[in-house]
Amino acid sequence: xxxxxxxxxxxxxxxxxxxxxxxxxxxxxxxxxxxxxxxxxxxxxxxxxxxxxxxxxxxxxxxxxxxxxxxxxxxxxxxxxxxxxxxxxxxxxxxxxxxxxxxxxxxxxxxxxxxxxxxxxxxxxxxxxxxxxxxxxxxxxxxxxxxxxxxxxxxxxxxxxxxxxxxxxxxxxxxxxxxxxxxxxxxxxxxxxxxxxxxxxxxxxxxxxxxxxxxxxxxxxxxxxxxxxxxxxxxxxxxxxxxxxxxxxxxxxxxxxxxxxxxxxxxxxxxxxxxxxxxxxxxxxxxxxxxxxxxxxxxxxxxxxxxxxxxxxxxxxxxxxxxxxxxxxxxxxxxxxxxxxxxxxxxxxxxxxxxxxxxxxxxxxxxxxxxxxxxxxxxxxxxxxxxxxxxxxxxxxxxxxxxxxxxxxxxxxxxxxxxxxxxxxxxxxxxxxxxxxxxxxxxxxxxxxxxxxxxxxxxxxxxxxxxxxxxxxxxxxxxxxxxxxxxxxxxxxxxxxxxxxxxxxxxxxxxxxxxxxxxxxxxxxxxxxxxxxxxxxxxxxxxxxxxxxxxxxxxxxxxxxxxxxxxxxxxxxxxxxxxxxxxxxxxxxxxxxxxxxxxxxxxx
Length: 604
Description:
Layout: E1 3-9, H1 13-23, E2 31-38, E3 41-48, H2 51-57, E4 67-74, E5 89-90, E6 94-102, H3 105-114, H4 126-139, H5 142-152, E7 155-163, E8 169-175, E9 180-183, E10 189-192, E11 204-207, E12 213-217, E13 221-224, E14 230-231, E15 235-237, H6 242-246, H7 253-269, E16 273-274, E17 277-278, E18 293-298, H8 300-317, E19 320-325, H9 326-329, E20 340-346, H10 352-363, E21 367-372, H11 378-382, E22 385-388, H12 401-421, H13 426-436, H14 439-442, H15 447-457, E23 465-470, H16 474-489, E24 493-497, E25 513-519, H17 525-537, E26 541-546, E27 555-558, H18 565-586
Parallel strand pairs: 18-19, 18-20, 20-21, 21-22, 23-24, 23-25, 25-26, 26-27
Antiparallel strand pairs: 1-4, 1-10, 2-3, 2-4, 5-6, 6-7, 7-8, 8-12, 9-10, 9-11, 11-15, 12-13, 13-14, 16-17
């Protein structure tokens, strides 16, 4: 998801920026651009699509002297992938690049427009450069203007800004989105949003902390913390292994992506939650006019998130909801009525079966909505409305953060619909919004938890199968846990509703049948516990995941004592992901590229 590079020095600025952006391609992007300030003049280039398009545009551009340059690869969040929406964004005499989301951009933009500022893009980022220049005209001091601008921004960001008002300087700020600065043997400075663009250039790096801001010039690195106190950079030796740097020290991309869930869910929430209101600026509320039913359609992991949504929509929004497996739905001659909102879910937006069901719904005259991670994908272009999950790129084939962000969106959407239908009390709505704000904390991986799962995993490398069991919304999570294990360990696993075990599957119970039991404290605990006891009595090996210790369990993985069952859901989600990961690693499998699977299933 979005990458940043920057350089200030006498080397070939254009090539350093382009090489840096190439090292960030693994993060995914839909457009790219660079801006270079040399001899007091800006040169800027943008292109949609792959970097080769940007390289073609810059082939006659030569940098030979001291210059300050910034570059960016964009993954669209606000506005379509177009050259106008690509970074860097221009003010009167400044350029900016930005990762993250400016949560209050709409309010700032409205004031700037009233002041006569003309916006060229649909992005939140363009607000930053215009706000800076507004402050610069008042203060006449670039550093004070930048400081005031940062104070006025709400949300997550990593920002680089270059201005003619201070030609030998790059201003920076970091809050929530990663960024670092490196130096080489000649004391020249390099910025990036991850290590890889700096490898081969910088020898040591400083990783900025949230709240850090300041500037870099030819001879200085000046850093202020969030209390506006100056601090010295803390340099570390830079790794020389690019693949390892992409993984940020994790063994596999899947492991990194499990750990990233806290940050990406925070991105999913940005701009969508107020104290007593859920907001989706992506579509008009009239989308739900005349809608009496919601039908969700998806495949694989996205199907499991959709199944989770049925519980939330009916519980909070009080609207009839059903879920369909796309590969079955498209051949069933289904009855589709125009009072139904048809919702498709796909990480890539290109899943063939799901895309075909969307076309069916469009042809039947239904209103359509897509929950997706990729702007400008086929589904996004076709549907009437879209909600982007903002999960960033997943390199691991077995989906983790895509599932997490989809369920997060569905929780918010259930409350949004509840607002429209007035099916929820204001006090309960405020409580639910407060709970949602806790998700990023709930999915943070504690070292003690991961170590415990590593130790436990050695017991689960054999046997004749796994049952993942749960009740209510924990049944879809059981399905997802079983799918994760199947995908990367190649062991047989099934997800079941806990109450269904005695209707046949319990015949399989013996010591070589491993039961992964999801036991939320705040939702049907006693009933689910009773179902697990039935399996325990038949000698099944039990691994219980709960905040409450279970004396019949052979293994117990504790989660936090949460305020609500949905926060338990997200904590248990992390546990089943890590358990599948560690079992697969012990079996010696390629976790990121499991056999027979593809990341995006674009065939039937």
